[in-house]
Design goal:
- The structure is a single chain.
- This protein is of the alpha+beta class.
- It is about 45% helix and about 20% strand.
- It contains seven helices and five strands; from the N terminus they run H-H-E-H-H-E-E-H-H-E-E-H.
- The chain has a three-stranded antiparallel sheet. A two-stranded antiparallel ribbon has the order 4-5.
- Helix 3 packs across helix 4.
- The longest helix is centred in the middle third of the chain and has 13 residues.
- It is globular and about 45 Å long.
């Protein structure tokens, strides 16, 4: 799976945002993602597996608990690809839902892959259920 396919999924981006704050247990991640996107526990586990298998996240076991952490190398590689075109990206309209919102532009200090969906979009988007 290509890095942009992985980062293109709002559920996986949300997981990476959680991990950006530091190591998290799989249970804590599941609780947040289930509430935000109304996903089943197995669906969240599948997204964690995709992130782990693609190298975007790592996991360590401590007893029965699993702790996930973000891996910076793949994100740095994506940044290296996007970096040369970031001035162009910064002036492009941000996507809001399914339409470009000309009133908002990308901000390099907020991160190019930051979610731009309105609050609660995962609850009404039929494609947001499952994987």
């Amino acid at each position: 799976m290509h890095a942009f396919d992985i980062l293109g999924d709002p559920r996986r981006r949300s997981i990476l945002e959680l991990l950006a704050d530091g190591e998290q247990t799989s249970g804590a991640i599941t609780d947040v993602i289930r509430a935000e996107f109304e996903l089943s526990q197995p669906a969240v586990s599948q997204h964690l597996r995709v992130l782990r298998d693609s190298g975007f996240a790592s996991v360590r076991a401590e007893g029965a608990r699993r702790f996930y952490a973000v891996e910076p190398a793949p994100l740095s590689e994506v940044g290296a690809v996007v970096g040369p075109v970031s001035p162009v990206l910064g002036s492009m309209p941000r996507r809001s839902g399914n339409r470009a919102d000309p009133g908002q532009t990308c901000s390099s200090d907020s991160g190019w892959w930051e979610p731009t969906r309105p609050a609660g979009a995962g609850k009404t988007d039929p494609l947001a259920k499952g994987i």
